[in-house]
Amino acid sequence: MNIHRILRWGALAFLAAAPLQAQTTLPDTPAGRQAGALLSAVRDAREDAVRAFIGERTTGKFREIPVATHVQQFQRMGAMIGSAPVAAVRAPSAAALEVDFQGERGMLTLRMQLEDAPPHRITGLALGRGEAPAAGPLTDAGRAAVVDSAASLLKRYYVTPDTAEIIGARLRERLRAGTYAAMDRATFARTLTADIRAVHPDQHLSVSTARQTQGPRPAAAAPGSGQYRYLADARILPGNVGYLKMSSFPGGQEAMNELAAALRTMERTEAMIIDVRESRGGSAHLANFLISHFTAPNLLSLATFQPVSGDTALRRTLPEVPGPRRLDVPLYVLVDRGSRSAAEDVPFVLRNLGRATLVGERTAGAGRNNRFFPLGEGLDISISVTRVWDPCTGAEWERVGIEPDIAAADALDAALRAPRRAPAALPQAQCRAR
User: Fold this and answer.
1) What is this structure's pTM?
2) What residues does the Tail specific protease domain cover (predicted)?
């Protein structure tokens, strides 16, 4: 089966051995028992359950990833798998297992790789879809099911429940009026997105074909920076100024390792420029990882609220970082209207903490955390599930964006011409989280 990968950890290297005959229950084998434990942790997805699973049942590579990242991934897996029954189980080798789940929104396949020897810990995981069920044209019944699924998911997960009700009613009204009749998938997805945003212009609300929603991808390397896989560019400019270009914020330990290594090559520069222009965002964990290299440890940086769980959380800068922690270097962040989501997190927090001067244009104003959910019929929906704000002031950048300190069409030139002084870090003694 061709797998459309949605989530992946570790390394997968399945052997080409003939698979065992497919079955619909997990086998009483090391791989089957690990799969059962994984499904229990995924359907629980509390931090203590995830932490215990990662600590006891996976290899060291998994434990290098922040627990908060695992919790998010487990929650996403749980939302995708839900209570779907096992449709088939295959064992390509003694150290590998594939599990198919047949849900109302299509087939999902979990792939797992284990150590060859006891205790048979997990070395690789991936969850993906089979080939998108988009072979034939959409039917009226299919469109109606998608609208119903979108309305239901929005009602359950959207950060503003009252707004979700209004959006759902609008989509159903448009369906009854025949607006979506005869549309192909791409047109249907674009029209649903437009209808949703006509009610509420949240940039994290969108519908797309399932093959588009693969999460953050490595940034395309700029000319002359071919040694980087995840960074668009990292080099020292004339005048001994470090320049770091982030076209996206990929998740995972490899991206963190590469970013730390790049920062080490620039630890003796006289100033630093972080360029997040035209960056589509990505992992909030990588954003905080970058921020923490230029701020003191354990500073309050963001507050978040999830309506589904009712949980409010406070994010702090990391207590330790692998790269250089540069608290005094003059720091400039280049922004424009293409800076979105995690690419707004970085300038928002660095300026609020008194560590950076922002140069360029107002940012996009995509200030919430989102998750992707399958709608069926080869479509996915992105839903804002978390509100984000400054814990000290209550300010947020959703819909309003972030204004630069220095407005400039050529942000890089303006930053290079700016006075070389480091902003005074703001004291947090009077901060009372809101």
Assistant:
1) 0.67
2) 224-409
